[in-house]
Input
Amino acid sequence: MASLSRVSLVHNSNIPLHRWRRTGIVEPPRALLAAQKPLCYWPQFLSSKVVISFEVSSNARYFGSWVPRATVEVVDDHIVVEEEDKAKEKSGILRVGVICGGPSAERGISLNSARSVLDHIQGDDLHVSCYYVDSNLNAYAISSAQVYSNTPSDFDFKLESLAQGFQSLADFAKHLSSSVDIVFPVIHGRFGEDGGIQELLEKHNIPFVGTRSNECRKAFDKFDASLELNRKGFVTVPSFLVKGSQSDKSDLSAWFARNQLDPNLGKVVVKPARAGSSIGVTVAYGIADSLKKANDIISEGIDDRVLVEIFLEGGREFTAIVLDVGSGFDCHPIVFLPTEVELQFQGSIDVQEKDAIFNYRRKYLPTQQVAYHTPPRFPVDVIENIREGASLLFRGFGLHDFARIDGWFFPSSVTMTTPDETKFGRTEFGTIVFTDINLISGMEQTSFLFQQASKVGFSHSNILRTIIRRACSRFPHLASYNSTSHLLPRRSKSSQLNESFPRRKVFVIFGGETSERQVSLMSGTNVWLNLQAFDDLDVTPCLLAPHNGYSTSKDRVKKENNMSSRSVCYSLVLRHTTEEVLAACIEADEPDRAVLTSSLRNRVMDELREGLKKHDWFTGFDIDDEIPLILSVDQWIKLAKEVQATVFIAVHGGIGEDGTLQFLLEAEGVPYTGPGAMASSICMDKVATSLALKHLGNMGVHTINKELWRKEDLLNKSVPEIWQDLTTKLLCETLCVKPARDGCSTGVARLCCLDDLAVYVEALEECLLRIPSNTLSKAHGMIEMPNPPPELLIFEPFIETDEIIVSSKSVNETARGLMWEGRSRWVEITVGVIGKRGSMHSLSPSLTVKESGDILSLEEKFQGGTGINLTPPPVSIMSNEALTRCKQNIELIANTLQLEGFSRIDAFVNVDSGEVLIIEVNTVPGMTPSTVLIHQALAEQPPMYPHRFFRALLDLASDRCT
Output
């Protein structure tokens, strides 16, 4: 097997540098993300080897980005990247290898972290190569395009043809030692945080970011770490270790007795000792239930060491980022402002969830079930004790560079069983308990790392580069990369570049009142961060929210005059929910809380300045806290007109997608992204969309019959009568129900019988926020419900498609892990369209593969690390001829509906004829980091990387108004 050796990247000194909008700090241009030619051109044929080199032309600057040019040579059956010239190693460009994936269930989150790292550190002084380790510990060199996949399952089964594999981990390490200067591991859980990858790198003398292998092993195992914490004088939670077949019921019974727990009802937490902080964590009652759940974790292969801990009621969870600002091997940890994690319960389903914990779903999916407070709502002395304890812990465990430390604060009213009052954690206000050490903290866009870093002045790029530069200082031969001669110069706001190239104003608006406002926040944040790559843009994030805050009332007003817009500063955007962003905006203007936050923030920043002043490579903080500007929608639009801003609409559903916002902007002549008011109004109404396309039946475009029902009628008529009426009129036995004028992700369910209909109607009547997994007769995931419930609902026949199964393990030579029987010949696709009105271009469709149930869950659509999308459809399922006809039909739909800018069309397609059965059209589709639109843009020739894609959408909006 050939080895991957080199990428040659030639930089031109005449190309202007990037800078940050707020302070003028240079932002590295993203050379590999702005390609006019494919970064890695993956040919359709699989029997070729490719040699790739890059050149940057002297006139490559376009809209503030660098444009590398690629040349491709076809050799034989694998992809080989040309080895870098030896001179390049001495040019001052730091070569960073980002490694993601791994065997744990968090490898999808690892991919998200790698994507975020790539987005924010790539630059003209720092070159990134991407690597992936699969669940079987096979290592691959992958393209940056693959990092933008939604989940490893998108490409796991294609790795042998699309990536360069290594015969062994030793071969992988040998490649790294000659191809990168330092490794940044972003593998979460096993092999990433347990010392596995670190030991491999140490054996081959490869510098890396983070803690060494021995210290990783001690800190990663929760049971061993708890014992070590106890030895070091910290308060700990009583725990018991279950070791698979060696587990002894009598020992656990004795432990229950020692801790005064009822053997049948004693409440405990059961979690893997050596997994991430979210996977496999559950609550158990009594000895038998504890052993059962522990053995379930073992049998599922999550871990063979399982921890049983006392469930401590009344505690408040927190997490704190620690940054080491020392030099060499001198450790100087500084703890940022901690974040309080608050679980919230709304509706009867949540009230029943008395055993709620901060699990995987709550951590990584934006949901109203959790809220974050930075700094915590604890007494100041407690916050300072948390910071002191986390710093001591960081030093005591011998950690390096950065880490995240989790724990609990128990007010004095909560009784703790620890007898020794001298242990660290005891305060006059209560007890602090540290529980988890995360050696490779999650690095998604709104992760705790970036939330807390932005609160004390670091942008995404600045904190990541600070971590990397700190790691370099431990390795003498990398010291030259930290010298001032290799650093990007800092530009001031009044720089010559600013004066020569006035920046164009852009307002990115997100939020709203619909059930998809949390996804809207993800979309808006992603667009905002990507557009900041361009030094000719001045991008302001804006929250659209109700005047008086969000309400759960089903009677709340849904009019634009009830809404206001807030310009939001950097640190306040990095939240998981719009409610949090709004609360942070209000809090920022609340005198007492604002004074406290400012005081604590300044204290941490003073410590950071003192610790970092000895480092020449640290050029200062680049984020300022600003007071949000609150305006009515009318005032906000007038401001946009006054400053000649272009509005990037990221508001899903409601006034953002029904034509209302578009109409108001058009009235003032303000350019905006996406289709016009009329097209938006039609597409928001699924019935109107079907009527507008009904005449295209003879041209290969078909619509699904629909029945429209008012919620009031559903609540007042008998369920058997409704079921009979629907199945008779629609001539089917299975129904699909969805809101008539809401987004595409909430309230959608398959109903197989009248009992299912009864459950759904009850959910509407009770205003439930969600229908739990597998409540209906056919297996399904969690169904998020619109809040408030929709007034109009659509029922239509459920379209049966053939199941597609994707596996990373090849079943045979031809299937390559993709199994599809192809009985019905219909598959579900989602496809983006982009362009000007009347000449819309269809991107490559994505096959949607559901992991559970028959309806894509909210997670599968928008949460990175979940859901599978195959882009473009494999030729084993759809021929190129059928794909071409499908794209032609999609373009026909887009042009008939007078779409412009961009939209997403969901449909069923016949894999033989390319005929399309339309599901719905989304004029403000999801733009999250894991959206299929990104995958489809990357499949274009040449590929469009995220920041270039969003810039193209912005430019289309401006072109429409000129």
User: Anything to note?
Assistant: The mean pLDDT is 81. DSSP finds 31 helices and 40 strands in the chain. The longest helix spans residues 591-612. The first strand starts at residue 9 and ends at 10.
